[in-house]
Give the backbone structure.
Amino acid sequence: MIFERVYTRKQIKNRKISSKKRRTRLLVYLVLCFLVIAIFALIIVKTKPFEIKNVSFADGEGNSNPEVLELLGTYTGQNYVKLMFENGFFAGAKNFFAGDIPQIESVMVFEFPLYKNISAKIKNGTLMVEGEERRNFVVLSCSGESLVADTDGTLLFVCETGETEQVISENLRSDWDNITLSGLKIENYVVGKKLTYEDNIAWTDIISLYFMIYADDTLDERISLVYFADETHAFFYCENNIVVEFGSVSDKNNAYDRLERLSAILRSESAGLSDGTIVMTDSGYDTWKPNSK
């Protein structure tokens, strides 16, 4: 036999009242929790224990930079917890426990693109920023301007073509000589951002070619400009009015073999080459075509 519990009207009414009380009690708890969090957040934002008292900066070699310190000094007295929570509560909570201040990292990337791998942390009231100085770069010719970019494609400077060497000498400590890249159809360039271009040549292939030229003293000294006609045709412009039809740069092994042969040709004093074109091939049968008089 199955028994069913039967509630009286009074019992049903009491259950409804009890359920309403529970909902009211829960709402009160939520409001109190919100007030406690708001008061706690207000205390954090307004109190001095969370202010930035000192700043420091060091690159990968332990060197500082007075211009960077001047920028960071503008954050002295600001509440670092408030900075951490500018992008929302959950992101702020993550930043708070890690001690990171990504907003300052973003400002550094824009104001000082010469540094990469930037981190901004807070410790005992001191804002500590670290970054690695960019040392290797390439120069690209674009619409009468020179674009100085890091090997990862990040644009560092935009200057007039005739001012390139001066800008480089005043702002960069380069580990290699300057070879200009030309012919790439640059779509968009903003200082501190990666370059974008229409060509189908991979940026890694371009930089690999750059490194291989730099590694050879003869090529590094003789080649002044690399022109990309398209993804399969690269041309080198060298001293003594020599043009090199180099071909594709996408196959690194073939490109390396051609560069070795080109280096040997340019070193050969007996060749006495000038005013002409060297046509490189994958087969190794390279030819010389003098300019017509």
In short: The longest strand covers residues 115-123. The longest helix spans residues 9-46. The chain has two domains: 50-133, 137-290. Residues 50-133 form one domain.
